[in-house]
Amino acid sequence: MARIIAIANQKGGVGKTTTAVNLSACLAAAHQPTLLVDCDSQANSTAAIGFAKDPSRHTLYHSLISNEPFDRIVQKSQVEGLDVIPADKNLAGAAVELVSAEEREYRLRGALKAMEDKYNFIIMDCPPALDLLTLNALCAAGSVLVPIQCEYLALEGVSELLDTLMRIRRTLNPNLEIEGILLTMYDERTTLSRQVASDLHTFFGQQIFKSIIPRNVRLAEAPSFGKPIILYDPHSKGAEGYTHLAKEVISNGEKRTGTGTRSAHTGT
Q: What CATH number does residue 183 fall under?
Protein backbone atom coordinates (compact mmCIF):
# COMPACT_ATOMS: atom_id res chain seq x y z
CA MET A 1 0.00 0.00 0.00
CA ALA A 2 1.45 3.36 -1.05
CA ARG A 3 2.25 6.12 1.37
CA ILE A 4 0.40 9.14 0.01
CA ILE A 5 2.08 12.46 0.81
CA ALA A 6 0.75 15.91 -0.12
CA ILE A 7 3.30 18.71 -0.52
CA ALA A 8 1.37 21.75 0.68
CA ASN A 9 1.71 25.31 1.88
CA GLN A 10 -0.80 28.10 1.31
CA LYS A 11 2.12 30.48 0.75
CA GLY A 12 3.63 30.57 -2.72
CA GLY A 13 7.32 30.50 -3.56
CA VAL A 14 8.38 28.21 -0.74
CA GLY A 15 9.62 25.28 -2.84
CA LYS A 16 6.55 23.04 -3.13
CA THR A 17 7.08 22.06 -6.75
CA THR A 18 10.85 21.80 -6.35
CA THR A 19 10.29 19.49 -3.40
CA ALA A 20 7.56 17.40 -5.08
CA VAL A 21 9.65 16.80 -8.21
CA ASN A 22 12.99 16.19 -6.55
CA LEU A 23 11.71 14.15 -3.61
CA SER A 24 9.79 11.94 -6.08
CA ALA A 25 12.88 11.50 -8.27
CA CYS A 26 15.11 10.68 -5.29
CA LEU A 27 12.59 8.17 -3.92
CA ALA A 28 12.48 6.45 -7.32
CA ALA A 29 16.29 6.49 -7.49
CA ALA A 30 16.28 4.74 -4.10
CA HIS A 31 14.31 1.87 -5.71
CA GLN A 32 10.94 3.03 -4.35
CA PRO A 33 8.26 2.89 -7.10
CA THR A 34 6.79 6.41 -7.01
CA LEU A 35 3.89 8.29 -8.60
CA LEU A 36 4.01 12.10 -8.84
CA VAL A 37 0.58 13.74 -9.12
CA ASP A 38 0.55 17.34 -10.36
CA CYS A 39 -2.48 19.00 -8.74
CA ASP A 40 -1.64 22.56 -9.82
CA SER A 41 -3.11 24.13 -12.96
CA GLN A 42 0.21 25.91 -13.56
CA ALA A 43 1.57 22.40 -14.33
CA ASN A 44 5.04 23.30 -13.06
CA SER A 45 5.76 19.79 -11.80
CA THR A 46 4.75 18.37 -15.18
CA ALA A 47 7.18 20.70 -16.96
CA ALA A 48 9.97 20.35 -14.39
CA ILE A 49 10.02 16.56 -14.77
CA GLY A 50 10.41 16.90 -18.54
CA PHE A 51 6.98 17.00 -20.24
CA ALA A 52 6.44 19.66 -22.90
CA LYS A 53 2.98 21.22 -23.25
CA ASP A 54 0.67 18.94 -25.22
CA PRO A 55 -3.02 19.92 -25.60
CA SER A 56 -3.90 16.35 -26.66
CA ARG A 57 -2.49 14.76 -23.51
CA HIS A 58 -5.02 13.66 -20.92
CA THR A 59 -4.35 14.97 -17.44
CA LEU A 60 -5.64 15.02 -13.88
CA TYR A 61 -8.50 17.21 -15.13
CA HIS A 62 -9.91 14.31 -17.18
CA SER A 63 -9.88 12.06 -14.14
CA LEU A 64 -11.52 14.52 -11.76
CA ILE A 65 -14.19 15.74 -14.19
CA SER A 66 -14.71 12.82 -16.61
CA ASN A 67 -13.77 9.96 -14.23
CA GLU A 68 -11.06 8.75 -16.60
CA PRO A 69 -8.99 6.05 -14.81
CA PHE A 70 -5.49 7.00 -13.74
CA ASP A 71 -3.98 4.02 -15.56
CA ARG A 72 -5.04 5.66 -18.85
CA ILE A 73 -3.48 9.01 -17.88
CA VAL A 74 -0.25 8.00 -16.16
CA GLN A 75 3.01 8.81 -17.97
CA LYS A 76 6.46 7.31 -17.49
CA SER A 77 9.11 9.90 -16.66
CA GLN A 78 12.79 9.97 -17.57
CA VAL A 79 13.59 8.70 -14.06
CA GLU A 80 13.31 4.93 -13.80
CA GLY A 81 10.60 3.98 -11.32
CA LEU A 82 8.91 7.40 -11.40
CA ASP A 83 5.51 7.82 -13.10
CA VAL A 84 3.55 11.05 -13.43
CA ILE A 85 -0.08 12.13 -13.52
CA PRO A 86 0.32 15.39 -15.45
CA ALA A 87 -1.60 18.64 -15.12
CA ASP A 88 -2.50 21.43 -17.51
CA LYS A 89 -4.31 24.78 -17.44
CA ASN A 90 -7.72 23.04 -17.56
CA LEU A 91 -7.32 22.18 -13.88
CA ALA A 92 -8.17 25.79 -13.08
CA GLY A 93 -11.63 25.06 -14.45
CA ALA A 94 -11.89 21.84 -12.48
CA ALA A 95 -11.92 23.78 -9.22
CA VAL A 96 -15.07 25.53 -10.45
CA GLU A 97 -16.72 22.51 -12.08
CA LEU A 98 -16.32 20.42 -8.92
CA VAL A 99 -18.25 22.87 -6.74
CA SER A 100 -21.62 21.25 -7.48
CA ALA A 101 -20.31 17.67 -7.70
CA GLU A 102 -21.20 14.99 -5.15
CA GLU A 103 -18.36 13.97 -2.82
CA ARG A 104 -16.36 16.75 -4.42
CA GLU A 105 -13.55 16.69 -1.84
CA TYR A 106 -12.95 12.94 -2.40
CA ARG A 107 -12.66 12.72 -6.20
CA LEU A 108 -8.86 12.41 -6.11
CA ARG A 109 -8.93 9.85 -3.30
CA GLY A 110 -11.28 7.68 -5.36
CA ALA A 111 -9.05 7.94 -8.44
CA LEU A 112 -5.95 6.95 -6.45
CA LYS A 113 -7.49 3.76 -5.06
CA ALA A 114 -6.56 1.77 -8.16
CA MET A 115 -2.94 2.95 -7.96
CA GLU A 116 -2.13 2.37 -4.30
CA ASP A 117 -0.83 -1.18 -4.77
CA LYS A 118 1.45 -0.22 -7.67
CA TYR A 119 3.68 2.23 -5.80
CA ASN A 120 5.51 2.66 -2.52
CA PHE A 121 4.96 6.44 -2.61
CA ILE A 122 2.43 8.79 -4.17
CA ILE A 123 3.57 12.42 -3.99
CA MET A 124 1.10 15.24 -4.73
CA ASP A 125 2.12 18.78 -5.63
CA CYS A 126 -0.61 21.13 -4.36
CA PRO A 127 -1.49 24.64 -5.59
CA PRO A 128 -0.51 27.62 -3.38
CA ALA A 129 -4.10 28.08 -2.19
CA LEU A 130 -6.66 26.22 -0.13
CA ASP A 131 -8.98 25.53 -3.06
CA LEU A 132 -10.88 22.36 -4.03
CA LEU A 133 -7.78 20.88 -5.68
CA THR A 134 -5.76 21.25 -2.48
CA LEU A 135 -8.67 19.91 -0.43
CA ASN A 136 -8.85 16.88 -2.73
CA ALA A 137 -5.15 16.23 -2.19
CA LEU A 138 -5.42 16.62 1.59
CA CYS A 139 -8.43 14.28 1.71
CA ALA A 140 -6.50 11.68 -0.31
CA ALA A 141 -3.25 11.99 1.64
CA GLY A 142 -2.07 10.08 4.66
CA SER A 143 0.33 12.88 5.54
CA VAL A 144 1.43 16.40 4.59
CA LEU A 145 4.96 17.60 3.98
CA VAL A 146 5.22 21.36 4.51
CA PRO A 147 8.09 23.23 2.82
CA ILE A 148 9.01 26.52 4.49
CA GLN A 149 11.34 29.12 3.05
CA CYS A 150 13.78 30.43 5.65
CA GLU A 151 12.59 34.01 5.59
CA TYR A 152 10.71 36.59 7.64
CA LEU A 153 7.09 35.66 8.51
CA ALA A 154 7.69 31.95 7.76
CA LEU A 155 6.51 30.96 11.24
CA GLU A 156 3.27 32.90 10.87
CA GLY A 157 2.50 31.27 7.52
CA VAL A 158 3.05 27.71 8.68
CA SER A 159 1.01 28.29 11.84
CA GLU A 160 -1.97 29.26 9.66
CA LEU A 161 -1.47 26.15 7.53
CA LEU A 162 -1.35 23.84 10.54
CA ASP A 163 -4.57 25.41 11.85
CA THR A 164 -6.15 24.60 8.47
CA LEU A 165 -4.87 21.02 8.62
CA MET A 166 -6.40 20.56 12.05
CA ARG A 167 -9.78 21.67 10.71
CA ILE A 168 -9.46 19.21 7.81
CA ARG A 169 -8.67 16.41 10.28
CA ARG A 170 -11.81 17.24 12.25
CA THR A 171 -14.14 17.43 9.26
CA LEU A 172 -12.80 15.62 6.17
CA ASN A 173 -9.79 13.36 6.81
CA PRO A 174 -9.25 12.22 10.41
CA ASN A 175 -6.21 10.13 9.37
CA LEU A 176 -4.19 13.09 8.06
CA GLU A 177 -0.79 13.43 9.75
CA ILE A 178 2.14 15.83 9.49
CA GLU A 179 4.92 14.09 7.56
CA GLY A 180 7.28 16.87 8.51
CA ILE A 181 8.28 20.49 8.01
CA LEU A 182 11.08 21.05 5.50
CA LEU A 183 13.37 24.08 5.59
CA THR A 184 14.04 25.28 2.03
CA MET A 185 16.22 27.95 0.40
CA TYR A 186 18.43 27.92 3.47
CA ASP A 187 21.52 30.14 3.30
CA GLU A 188 23.85 29.40 6.20
CA ARG A 189 25.76 32.64 5.50
CA THR A 190 22.82 34.84 6.53
CA THR A 191 21.72 35.63 10.06
CA LEU A 192 18.08 35.60 8.92
CA SER A 193 18.18 31.99 7.68
CA ARG A 194 19.86 30.82 10.87
CA GLN A 195 17.40 32.73 13.06
CA VAL A 196 14.32 31.46 11.20
CA ALA A 197 15.64 27.87 11.38
CA SER A 198 16.25 28.28 15.12
CA ASP A 199 12.77 29.70 15.71
CA LEU A 200 11.11 26.90 13.72
CA HIS A 201 13.04 24.22 15.62
CA THR A 202 12.04 25.84 18.91
CA PHE A 203 8.37 26.00 17.91
CA PHE A 204 7.94 22.68 16.08
CA GLY A 205 10.72 20.50 17.52
CA GLN A 206 10.73 16.95 16.14
CA GLN A 207 8.34 17.85 13.32
CA ILE A 208 11.23 19.56 11.49
CA PHE A 209 13.12 17.32 9.06
CA LYS A 210 16.83 16.89 9.77
CA SER A 211 17.39 17.36 6.03
CA ILE A 212 17.69 20.98 4.93
CA ILE A 213 17.43 22.20 1.34
CA PRO A 214 20.02 24.91 0.65
CA ARG A 215 19.67 27.89 -1.64
CA ASN A 216 21.36 26.45 -4.72
CA VAL A 217 21.77 27.85 -8.25
CA ARG A 218 21.83 24.41 -9.90
CA LEU A 219 18.60 23.48 -8.14
CA ALA A 220 16.97 26.65 -9.46
CA GLU A 221 18.22 25.98 -13.01
CA ALA A 222 17.11 22.35 -13.27
CA PRO A 223 13.37 22.93 -14.01
CA SER A 224 14.17 25.03 -17.09
CA PHE A 225 15.95 21.96 -18.50
CA GLY A 226 13.04 19.66 -17.61
CA LYS A 227 15.18 17.57 -15.28
CA PRO A 228 15.16 16.75 -11.56
CA ILE A 229 18.34 17.78 -9.82
CA ILE A 230 19.70 14.21 -9.59
CA LEU A 231 19.82 14.13 -13.40
CA TYR A 232 20.78 17.77 -13.97
CA ASP A 233 23.62 17.95 -11.43
CA PRO A 234 23.81 14.89 -9.14
CA HIS A 235 26.83 16.29 -7.29
CA SER A 236 25.24 19.61 -6.33
CA LYS A 237 24.24 20.65 -2.82
CA GLY A 238 20.60 20.58 -3.94
CA ALA A 239 20.86 16.96 -5.07
CA GLU A 240 22.51 16.07 -1.78
CA GLY A 241 19.73 17.78 0.19
CA TYR A 242 16.90 15.96 -1.59
CA THR A 243 18.71 12.61 -1.50
CA HIS A 244 18.99 12.96 2.27
CA LEU A 245 15.31 13.96 2.49
CA ALA A 246 14.23 10.87 0.52
CA LYS A 247 16.22 8.63 2.86
CA GLU A 248 14.68 10.36 5.88
CA VAL A 249 11.13 9.96 4.51
CA ILE A 250 11.74 6.26 3.82
CA SER A 251 13.25 5.75 7.27
CA ASN A 252 10.45 7.62 9.06
CA GLY A 253 7.84 5.44 7.37
CA GLU A 254 9.63 2.25 8.39
CA LYS A 255 9.85 3.47 11.99
CA ARG A 256 6.11 4.18 12.07
CA THR A 257 5.07 0.81 10.68
CA GLY A 258 7.90 -1.33 11.99
CA THR A 259 8.23 -2.89 8.53
CA GLY A 260 10.29 -2.44 5.40
CA THR A 261 9.07 -1.09 2.07
CA ARG A 262 8.14 -3.01 -1.08
CA SER A 263 11.68 -3.20 -2.47
CA ALA A 264 14.52 -4.83 -0.60
CA HIS A 265 16.92 -2.31 -2.13
CA THR A 266 16.21 1.05 -0.55
CA GLY A 267 19.50 2.68 -1.43
CA THR A 268 19.89 3.82 2.15
A: 3.40.50.300
